[in-house]
Amino acid sequence: MTAEVKTERIPIAENSSLGKLAVAGSVWTVAGYGCQQVLRMGTQVIIIEQLMPDAVGLFVLVSVWVQGIQLFTDMGIGANIIQHERGNETTFLRTAWTFQILRGFVIFALVLAVSYPLSQHYDQPLLLWLLPIAATEALCNGFATTSIFLANRRLQMRWVTMLDLGANFAGAVVAVTWVLLHPTVWAYLALPVTRAIVRLTASHLLFPEPRMRFKFDWGVVRSLFSFGKWIFVSSILGFLSGSLDRLVLPDLLDDLAAFGVYGVAVLWARGVVNALQAISQKVLLPLYAHMADEDRGDLANRIFRVRGTILLFSLPVIYFFVLFGEEFVGLVHSERYADAGWILQVLAAGAAVSAITVTTGSVLLAVGDSFRFMVMLSTGMVAITLSMIIGYNIDTTALIGYDISPTTGVIVGIACAEIFNYPAVAFLTHRYGVWLPKLDLPLFALTGFVVWIAFG
Predict the structure, then answer these.
(1) Nearest Cα to 230, choosing from 359, 76, 384?
(2) Sequential DSSP letters for 211-235
(3) What is the pTM of this model?
(4) What is the rounded CA–CA span in Å between residue 421 and residue 409?
(5) Inter-axis angle of helices 218-253 and 53-72, to 10 degrees?
(6) pLDDT higher than 50, residue 2
(7) Secondary structure class of 5 (helix, strand, coil)
(8) Which residues contact 8 (CB under 8 A, 6 or more apart)?
(9) d(C-alpha 372, C-alpha 185), whole Å
(10) Is the preceding peptide bond at 192 cis, omega within 30 degrees of 0?
């Protein structure tokens, strides 16, 4: 006779309707992320102005490689908790936490392994020490409670937002103090490491239930790997499509200071898009998951209103950078970062297209279709790769009447990549009823008009 196995399920505490939860979650996420962006941008400006461009370029290198290794080990644990039917069970959360810790150690080991080869490749001995220290952030994040994702699943974003905001504030205080007292690239690392330590500690205090313990359940493991196998591939592709520029340009420019200037432009151009990605992950993903079995027509109408409202507030900021990027950089940064102005204008034009498309892809994860999500990122990687190759090799004299450098062509190609990827996004999300041409196409036309004003 087989003994009955009882699995503890965390009770659902909310009594609010799905619509109210979605609105409240959106408000908390947008407000919280807005505050974090202001804090982040202010901190970055202070640090950047205290450092030379080559030090900024060095930190961008550290960030892109550590982030890349993190994504190369991503199995979508948080997304799985949000969308899986067992995602609110204690056994599921504890098993996911165990794997999250293992992943943190794997990330640290991999970063440690590549530190020496990368320091030799870039002829930057300091990378041998900077990379492992930066990877301690992944170790700390591994031990943070997975109950954060449970709150995210329930669209209870108040304390999730407060946790992230508090951790970022602590990191900013330490980093700014450090750079003012001792202006070196190490001040940059103080921010993510401090943030991770605070987030780890506070997560267990703010989300004590269920208490985390090591757990290994084969059913959960199979679910994690079944869902995560395509997330793993998707994360690699997403990293390559989103960071290919910062992997290629250091060798293309052969100048760490020039790469640091480019990094400043990316910081501003991608800020709004990163905010939209956070909203998509923290609000739209659980919202789609709750509504996955509801009427598709109603889903499309709701998403139209949500996306329309979000874009109403986000696109004007991006358009500002397209129109006045050079003036903005001249106002905020010193003369040594002046070239970031025109780069910001070009990249912001591409960011406007990304902003329009970024809020649609999470529906694929919400319904558990990680394969199509992987395909969407594959097309994105192909689009940016081809765009960069074409931009580098194209004969601009014959095309537009005057010559531009291959590096400039690559930057323009990066900005154009998302346009070429849009048909794939539309095709892959159409079956779930969230491709909204009546919203997207007019916004594309408006974006084209803004770009024409800026560069025409």
Answers:
(1) 76
(2) PP-----HHHHHHHHHHHHHHHHHH
(3) 0.75
(4) 19
(5) 150
(6) no
(7) coil
(8) 89, 90, 91, 210
(9) 40
(10) no
